[in-house]
Amino acid sequence: MGVYEELQERGLIAQVTNEEEIRKMVNEGKAIFYIGFDPTADSLHVGHFMALCLMKRLQAAGNKPIALVGGGTGMIGDPSGRSDMRQMMTTEMIDHNCACFKKQMSRFIDFSEGKALMVNNADWLRDMNFMEFLREVGPHFSVNEMLRARCYVNRLSQGLSFFEFSYMLMQGYDFYRLYEDYGCNMEFGGDDQWSNMLAGTELIRKKLGKDAHAMTITLLTNKEGKKMGKTASGAVWLDAAKTSPYDFYQYWRNVDDADVGKCLRLLTFIPMEEIKKMDAWEGAELNKAKEILAYHLTELVHGAEEAKKAEEAAKSLFAGGGNSANTPKCVLKKAEYPEGIDILNLLVVSGLAPSKGEARRNVQQGGVSFAGEKITDIGRQLSLSELENEPLLQKGKKSFMKIVLE
């Protein structure tokens, strides 16, 4: 089985423009492909996970990835699937976020010896003259066709600014420049990017002729990634400072039963033969499949040592011990809490609840325990003496935090 057929079997491929040629190039390791990443934050998140795993799979088969960071397009923001305009960022924020991406990507992609490239579209977009851009790109796009694009549907009824309307032209121009400058012959992207991706292939065809090998393939990165990457407390980040390895492990350990097989297929490198066997697992065996998923992905993102620590802590807490050296900790400074802290604030400070409102609901629903005692009073004040000896704060059955007083 070639790598293209494996992508099909794993459920990654949604749409392609020229399947036979794409299949041949990918299987022969001749694809030079790119995936774009808009620097809307200083860390990649689970929504990017499938794209990174795809790049890793294809690079292992001899293909060359180009990670395009949107230092230029990020100044506008992609309107695809949105009902409002993105908040504009400063160039300093964008450049900082772009710099953060390569370090995280390097865990998935080998950038050594020209095996992969990271390119920033700020190099050609930021200093481009507006009239030059209109003459270079504008004649090749029909406004009538653009208005029918799926990526604009959510915005047309509420108002789409010209600022955002130009995003498709810029993404199309990105592909053209990558084709010209780096020999990039393929673009990969999320299912909501189809219209923007076709814009690039059309621009190459119109400017360079029908023989230009510009092909696209669409993954389920955006739709499935957004579904997978959200929790009650927000996004699941790949940066350990934003989402700890333990919380990352626990997120995957607690995925819905119905999503286990899909996650194993889309995100792991476990052979399909093994995954198919796990499809039939139920009960305790299904929990084992979740543990395999959580460990595999935590190891991929944070390394084997952190994955082992997270697994050990999770098993210890599940068994009711709660005293593992790897149990996640929340450090409180005595000087900052001389009178102690109330339970709602503690839930928020520890990261077990995203807000006091959510913390209040957790307590009222009987889902919070402190030092083995169920807390039912939303006004419960915890004294400094109660916070000593590293008591365990628990929310629900699977979320724990050791409180450390310094």
TrEMBL record:
Reaction equations catalysed: tRNA(Tyr) + L-tyrosine + ATP = L-tyrosyl-tRNA(Tyr) + AMP + diphosphate + H(+)
Superkingdom to which the source organism belongs: Bacteria
Motif segment ('KMSKS' region): 227-231
SUPFAM superfamilies recorded: Alpha-L RNA-binding motif, Nucleotidylyl transferase
Family annotation (Gene3D superfamilies): HUPs (3.40.50.620), RNA-binding S4 domain (3.10.290.10), Tyrosyl-Transfer RNA Synthetase (1.10.240.10)
Major location (coarse): cytoplasm
Alphabetized InterPro entries for the sequence: aa-tRNA-synth_I_CS (IPR001412), aa-tRNA-synth_Ic (IPR002305), Rossmann-like_a/b/a_fold (IPR014729), S4_RNA-bd_sf (IPR036986), SYY-like_C (IPR054608), Tyr-tRNA-ligase (IPR002307), Tyr-tRNA-ligase_bac-type (IPR024088), Tyr-tRNA-ligase_bac_1 (IPR024107)
Residues that hold ATP according to the record: K230
Any one GO CC term of the record: cytosol
Keyword terms of this UniProt record: Aminoacyl-tRNA synthetase, ATP-binding, Cytoplasm, Ligase, Nucleotide-binding, Protein biosynthesis, RNA-binding
Keyword RNA-binding found: yes
Motif ('HIGH' region): 39-48
Top-tier EC class: ligase
UniProt-listed Enzyme Commission number(s): 6.1.1.1
Residue ranges constituting the Tyrosine--tRNA ligase SYY-like C-terminal domain according to the UniProt record: 339-401
Compartment(s) of residence: Cytoplasm
Entry keyword annotation includes tRNA processing: no
GO BP terms, alphabetized: tyrosyl-tRNA aminoacylation
Function: Catalyzes the attachment of tyrosine to tRNA(Tyr) in a two-step reaction: tyrosine is first activated by ATP to form Tyr-AMP and then transferred to the acceptor end of tRNA(Tyr).
Matches recorded under NCBIfam families: tyrS
Family stated for the protein in its record: Belongs to the class-I aminoacyl-tRNA synthetase family. TyrS type 1 subfamily.
Record note on quaternary structure: Homodimer.
Protein name: Tyrosine--tRNA ligase
Organism name: Oribacterium sinus F0268
Taxonomic classification: Bacteria, Bacillati, Bacillota, Clostridia, Lachnospirales
